[in-house]
């Protein structure tokens, strides 16, 4: 029998008790119903990593001479390395995502843990290969505006410049448009859709390829 899927949910907003939180909870409910183990990082309640003041803070320690990771960064990195499947739930702000989520990415997707540049040339190693991800994004703009005017900037940044760069394959992007104009019925439908995505992802993650092993 395959092991249960290990899913990390990152709630990428500094505002507590939001629609994003309800969506994350519904996703977790669906995934848990298929036996998945869930960890959640809620950037509205958990510490947001401070902006780095030293370049060394942007890489995993290589030996005892390097700076140790700050406690919350070490915990978040442990959660990331633990997971088979990563779910990022966030609102679209100014065409991308909140600074809280960007700070999390800057401090947790570390050189030497998420990726490693080759000593020479332009190549790099993707250290999170074997993991998958889903992005769940709310937005006030319609889909066509996000696609034509913003060029899908938020999901492109995450799927290509962050997740893909580190070897994580994005298996789904759930876009929930025009929140400001949505009805209660529509929001209930979104919650049901996201719950079904949790069921599907938990089932798929159990059968995914082995994850790359990373020692930090």
Q: What does this protein look like?
A:
By secondary structure, this protein is α/β, with parallel strands linked by helices. It is 37% helix and 19% strand. A 5-stranded parallel β-sheet has the order 2-1-3-6-7, sandwiched between helices. Strand 4 and strand 5 form a beta hairpin. Helix 1 packs across helix 6. It is globular and about 55 Å long. The model has no long low-confidence stretch (mean pLDDT 93).
Calculate the terminal CA-CA distance, rounded to whole Å.
Answer: 30 Å
Compressed to H and E, one letter per element, the order equals EHEHEHEEEHHEH
Q: Which value, in Å, is the CA radius of gyration?
A: 17 Å
Which CATH architecture?
A: 3-Layer(aba) Sandwich
From the spread of the alpha carbons, the general shape counts as globular
Number of strands: 7
Low-confidence stretches: none
Per DSSP, the total helix count is: 6
